[in-house]
Structures are given as C-alpha cells and as structure tokens.
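haha ok so turns out i had the wrong file open the whole time. this is the CORRECT one, sorry everyone. sequence first:
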Amino acid sequence: MKNTKMMVVGFLSAVAVSVALSTSLLAKNNAAEPSEASLEASRLQSLAKFTKVLGIVEQYNVDNLTIDQLIDKSLQGLLSNLDAHSTYLDKKSYDNLKTQTDGEFGGLGITVGMRDNALTVIAPIEGTPADKAGMKAGDIILKINDQSTLSMTIDDAVSIMRGAPKTPIDLTVVRKGEAEPLKFHIIRDIITVESVYTRTIGGNILYIRVTSFDKKV
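then structure:
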C-alpha cells in the first residue's frame, strides 16, 4: 500500500513538472512571436516615419521636385535595393522599354553613353542614318538641334534623338583631331536592332551571340 502511494505521488509529481515545463515553453514561444497588434503598430510606425521624412524632403529639397517625383524616386530606390532583379518603371521608362523590346524604332542609329560627364557616341550602328552621315565612336555631342547637352541625362538625349522616321535632326559634335565642332544634319529612319549575331569559328563551331531579347529574336 505504501509503495502504491509512493508510485501515485511520483506520477503526479512527473505530471506537474511536465505541465510546468510545457507552460514555460509556451510562454517563451508567445514572447518570441510578436502579436498581430504589435506587428500592425510597427508597420504604422514605419509608415509614419516615411511620411515624415517625405514631408521634410518635399519642403526643403533644392530642386523643387513635386510630390509625384519624390514618390517615384522613393519607389525606384526601394526596388533597386530590394534585389538584383527588381526595378520600378514610371510611364516614361515603361514606354522606352516597350520601344526597345519592339526590336525597331525611329531614330539615328547610335549608342550613346556618359564619358567624363559628356554625352558621347559609343558606336554607330552600321547602315543607319548616323553611320551614313559619318558619325564615329568617340564623338562628343554638344548640341541636339539648338539644345545644349551639358546638363542633359542620357534618357533625355535619347528621347529627343528618337522620333518619327523621315524627320530631320541636327547634331553638333566635337571630334578628336578636329579644330572646329562638326555639324550633322540627319534624317531619322526606322532602326532595326539586330539582337542575334552568328558566325562560324574554325569551320565546325557556330558562335551565337544574343545581345538583347525582343519581339524579333
């Protein structure tokens, strides 16, 4: 009888310890996992911080950017820092992307970039109006029509140079070895982008290069 009582007491003690441990672990898990209310409060706090900073920037930015422009820049920063494959496109950027993926557009046929803060021709595309006019890699574009390129972005320059086929455009460029700026009067045309190049190497190897993906690949 005495042994039975001891067994019962031992069993009850084990149950009590087990319940206490379970309760302790449950309390720890609950403490480790924030509640929905705390998550919502944190979210609202973060949004309030963003709104406050946005208001300060809107009031004091030196470029007089509108709230829409500031929001676009905020979204661009957010997506560009998210991962290597995310980006934000405003209407202008989206329209440019559609033009590029169409595989053809009205323009001059030059690739441009910024070198030493100057709008520079990287290369003319063979057979295009720019190539036929005599433009060369390394030409620095000073003016597009009568508009200076000194404070112009690449996107703005490309937007101006692109246009309806058979329409004229004037470029003033500086070329190494030339004492005076050169002026080119060019008629825009349909520029077809060759996105796939092939050649045979050694007679039995076919080399295929894909430079971009568009509707004409």
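The first strand starts at residue 104 and ends at 107.
again sry for the mixup
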